[in-house]
Design goal:
- The complex is a heterodimer of chains A (about 375) and B (about 475).
- Chain A contains 2 helices and 21 strands.
- With about 375 residues, chain A is mainly β.
- In chain A, the strands form 3 sheets. An 8-stranded antiparallel β-barrel of chain A has the order 2-10-11-15-16-17-18-21. In chain A, strands 4-5-7-13 form a 4-stranded antiparallel beta sheet, with no helix packed on it.
- The N terminus of chain A is likely disordered.
- Chain B is mainly beta and about 475 residues long.
- Helices cover about 5% and strands about 55% of the residues of chain B.
- The longest helix of chain B has 21 residues.
- The chains are: A mainly beta (about 375), B mainly beta (about 475).
Chain lengths: ~375, ~475
Amino acid sequence: MRLPEKMFHRNARRSAGWLACCFAGVTFAASAQSDSSDLFGGDPSKNSFLWIPSDTPDWTRHFHIGAVAGMNISANFSMNGTFGISGNNAAAGIYDDGYVRPDQTGNAGGYTSYWGYNNASQYNAAAGSLAMHSSTSFSATGSSKDDGGPFPGFDMAYGDNLWYWKHARVGWELGFSLLPVNIQDNSSMPASVNQSTYLYNVGNPLGIPLPQAPYSGSSGGQGSVIPGTPESASSQTFENGSVTGSRSLDVILYAVRFGPSFYWDLNDYLGFSLGAGPAVGIVSGNYAYNENVLAGGITSHNTGAFSGTDVTFGGYVNGLLMYHVINDADIYLSAQYMPLGSATFSNAGREGKLNLGGQIYLSLGINWPF
Amino acid sequence: MKLFFKLRILAVSVVALILIGAKADAQIYFGLGAASSASSILVSNALTYTVSVTNLTGFLLPDTLVSNVLPAFVQFSSATNSPGSFTNYGSVVVFDLGPLIVAGTAQMSLTVEPTEAGYITNMISVTTTNLVIAPVTTNLVTLVTNVVPTEADLGVALTGPAQAVIVNDWMTYGVTATNLGPDDAPGVLLTNTLPAGVILESVAPANQPYSVVTNNLIIDLGTLAAGGGTNLQFTVQPTNAGVLNFSASIGAAGIADSNPTNNSASTNITVQNYLSLPLFVVTNSGQTVNLANGLEEQSILVSNNVGTNVFAVRVVVTNLTKQLFNAFGTNNGNPFVVLNTMLPAGQGAGLRLQFAPRGTFPLASSQLSAFAVPLLNLVPPAAVSTSTSLNISRIVPLTDGTMLIEFPTTVGRTYTVVYYDGSLASSNAMIAPPSIVAPANRVQWIDYGPPETTSVPANSTNRFYRVFLNP
C-alpha cells in the first residue's frame, strides 16, 4: 500500500532533516517504503504496545521550539516588621527635605554654602531656624496579591517514540522553558514612622533672610551660607504614616519537564500529541522596592532590592496540535498546564511569593521530526 | 607716422620726467581715475581696466595722451575710448584723447589677457603735448594665478579698555578678526603689535596658540569661515605713561583680499600715572562672614589727606593670600577696588573688601595703598542694558542700612546688577561691579555701598535696582 505523499515522507523518513543533522548528528539514509500495513503506522487491531525497532525507517524523534505566553501567575507581597529608609542619611547631612553638607572651604567659619531646602515651611524666620527632617525607620504589616502576565518566554523539547499503540506512537519527551516574570505591587499600607528633626540656627543680627524655597546651594563655598551643623535634634513617631510606591518581583522561571508522550497523526496534515509528567522549576531574580514613606507632611524615599533563588516542584500536562507544513517541519500550537510550588523571596520582614500553582503556557512554534 | 608718434611720446615722457623731478609739489592738472575688473584673475582670463581723465587745468588742452605700460606677458585684446583713438604699441597702449575742454572728462577701457602667472602692473600716465605740465600717474596691480584664488575680505578691528589706564594696570583690549567672505580663508595670521614697555599678561581664550616675535604677537587663526570671525582679548601691563599705539593686521597667504583697507587697525591708549601721592588707608574692622554670599569681609577706611578733592580713589591690596573677590582690576599683579565717587579733602570713606575662599586670614593696613584716580565709567554697556532683565523676587532692608536683593538664577550664568540713584532714568544707571556668577538657583546680593556702589543705600534718597542676565 502506498502512503499518501505527506505521510510517505513522514513515515518512511526518506530524507534527513537538516535540524536532525544539527542536533543529532545523524544522517538518515533513504530507505524503502514503510512496511506498515496502516496509513498512520501501528496496528489498530492490537491492544498491545509494539516496539518500534531501532532500525525503523520511521522518523521517531522530534525537536520543537517556540514562543510561550505564561499566564495565571500571581505573587503575594507582604511586609511585617520595622524597616530602614534608604533615601536619607542624616549623619551625612542628607535629609528628606533638604541637605546641609560640608562645602569646599571645609565649612570655614562654621558655615557651609552646600545646603538646600524644599519647602518654605521649614524656615521660621522669626525664630531664625531651619528645620530638616529625616525619617529613620517605619513599621508596617500588610500583604497584597497581584496578578501578572501574560509573560513572554520560550519553550523547547526533545522526544522520541518507542512504541506503537494502535495508531498512536508512545514515547518520551524532555522539555525546557524559560519565562521572565515581573509582577509589581502598588498597594499602600499604613505605617508607624520614626522621624528626626534637625534645627539649624540661621538667625543673624542683620536680618538676612534665607533664600526663598526651593533653594539648592552648591559646594563651591559661595552663595548663601548657614551653620554646617544643627543646633538641636529631636525625634518623633508618627503612627498615622503610610507607605506608598511599589514592590516588585523580577525573576526568571526556568522549568524542566520529563514524561511520556503520545502522538497521533490525525490526517495527512495534522498531528496531535499529549504529554504529562513531573516538572521542576528554578526561580531566580530580584525583589525590589521603590517606596515613599509619608509622615508628618514629609516624604521619605526608600529603595532597595535583594536577590534570591528558589526551587519548586510539580508536574505538567500538555497537548500539541501540529500542522505538517513541509516534510521536515511542522507548526505547532500547544497548551500546557504546569502547576509548580510557590517560589518565595524574603529578607528582613519583606516577602514576595510567586504563585506558580496554576500557570498555563500557550505556545506557538516549529517542530522538526527526524 | 608711427615713428613720429613714438618720438612724440618719447618727448612727452622726457618732459614728464623732468617735471616729476622738478615739480614734485606742483599743481595737479588731471583727475585720473583707474580701476581693474578684478584684483586677481586666472591666466588667459580677460582683465579690463577702466580709466577716466578729467581736465583740471582750467584751460583747453589741445592734445591729451594716456599711456598704459604693461608687462610683456600680457596680450592686448581690445580698447575703447571716448573721445579720441588708441594705438597698441605692444607693451604700451596709448589713448590719444585729442582736445580736452576745461573740466572735460574722457573715458577709456582696455582689455588684456595675461599669458602666465605673476603680478600685472599697469602703469597709467596721463599728460599732454605742447604744454609743459606735470603728468599724473597711477599703478594698478593684479595677481594672475594658474588656479582660482581664494577670495575673502579679511578684516581686523581693535577695541580699547573702557576705563582710564594707570601705569602698570592690567588692561584688556580686544582684537576682532573677521572674514566677510565670500570664501573661507585658510591659514589666517593675525599680527598684534605691542608698543614698547608693554608686558603681555594673558591671551583669551586661553587655548589660543600664539608666538611672540620681538613686540609682535603672531596668532595663527587657522581657517576663518566666510561670514565668521573671532575675538581675542589681550591683557597687558603698560609700564610707562604716555600715549601707546596698539596695532593689529591680518592676512593669509594665497588669499585675494577684495578689500585690503580693513586688514590693519590701530588704536591709541593713554596711560597715566596716579593723580596724587598715596592717600591714607587702614583696616577698620575684623573679618566676618557675609551670610548672603559666603565671602569673608573686612572694612577699610580711606582718608583724603592730600589737600585737594579727588575724583575717585583706588585701594590696592598687596601680598594677598586670598582672592579679593570684589576687585575692580589689577595693577602690577595686585588687585584693587575703587571708591568711584569724589572724596573731598580731609574726608574719609569706608569700603568693604570681600575675600574668597571664606576663612579668616591676616590683613594688615600696610598691605593697603590708596591713590587718587580718574572717575570710572560705570555706565552699563549696550550689551548689558539690552540683555534680559530679571524679576527681583524681593528687596530686604537690613538693619545696618544696607539692602539685600534676591533673584532667581541659573547656576553658572553671569548676572550684572545695575542701580539707579534718584530715578530709573537710563542716565542714572550705574553698574555695581563685579558681575555675579550664580553659585545656586537663587542669589542674594547686598548693596552695602562702596566699592560696589557709590554710597550706602541708606544715604540715597531713592535707589532702584535691576538685574540683567549677561549674554
